[in-house]
Amino acid sequence: MSYIVSWSGGKESCLACYEAMRRGYQISHLVNFISRESRRVSFHEVDAGLVRLQSEALGIPLLQPETTPDGYEQEFKAAVRRLIPGGVEGMVFGDIYMQEHLDWVEKVCADLGIRAVEPLWGRSTPDIMLAFMGYGFEAIVVAAQPALIEERWIGRPVDGPFIDYLKSKNIDLCGENGEYHTLVTGGPIFRRKIRVVESRTVSRNNYWFLDAVKYELGD
Question: What pTM, to 2 d.p., does this model score?
Answer without folding.
Answer: 0.95
